[in-house]
Write a structure and sequence with these properties.
single chain; alpha/beta; eight-stranded parallel β-barrel; two-stranded antiparallel ribbon; 11 strands
Length: 358
Amino acid sequence: MDVGVFLPIGNNGWLISTTSPQYMPTFELNREVTLKAEKYGFEFALSMIKLRGFGGPSEYWEYNLESFTLMAGLASITRRIKLFASVAVLTIPPALLARMAMTIDSMAPGRFGVNIVSGWQKAEYEQMGIWPGEVHFARRYDYCGEYVQVMRDLWSTGESNLQGEFFQMSDCRVRPIPAKPIEIIAAGQSNRGMQFAAEYADYNFISAGGFNDVSQVRPHTERLLAAKAASGRNCGAMLLMMIIADETDAAAMAKWEHYVAGTDLDALAWRDAQAGADVKAEAQSTAGRMVRALREPTTMLRLVGSYPTVAKHMDELAAIPGLQGVMLTFDDFLIGMEQFGTRIQPLMRCRQHIAQAA
């Protein structure tokens, strides 16, 4: 099972709480996390793109770095780990993005990929006057399909003449072309989103809720496996999840309960109002899941416990058919990376060869 890290490119990471570790997103922080990931044998690191936060007392995600700029800096100081930057497709034309990606690929040959963000939070785009209207909710994966096709044309031949509904290329040229295909990641949770991933992406992030309950993951991998079979392409499932660990189960649980006590309800309310704007969102979609989520600091699967407890659950995840890997978040990234690398990974049967090499 591959392991990656979801870099803390936004303030306070992935806990919407006033009592969780509070920190700003800096290059120094992300550099240290990425170098730890490479040291401990992680296969990849990915940074999101977020253009507007949720506010509230925690000022959740009000402070963010830019994904491609950050990953370019990290490409120059790493040697092995794969790096994925995220693009909000409504903000950058695909031909320009293709050139940006090829530039970073030249810094980290064969180690760079692009995460496609279709855009579910309209406030991110309304603030800049580039929101295409509510129709985008229904058409966003068609838009993304043409977007990726333009990039793949340019990366494979250096030219694109795609005449689509959203993009009309006329002898568009971007060179040099990469020596190896640049990989694409998506994060579609709805059936339509998974169809897009199966048709255009190399990996798709899946989300599952739950507290130490890995059984909730299987239904989502099964949906992606079905979409992959229908497309005739290969698309690996990657699970987004959080680890909160300590010496004992009780100590880890005490951390979680402390974070829950500080849940930023104002930030959650703003997030949910944004998610509710897509009135036709499927229940499994990102927006649909947020609207129905519990009033807790995170909606993702949480493994909370001692180092052996977390390792046991990680091995259970590795046994799920169709799950190719996981992307980890932590309550405190610097402490969490050390805990995973030195205390958890050596106990995982599925990662012992990596732990020994690290």
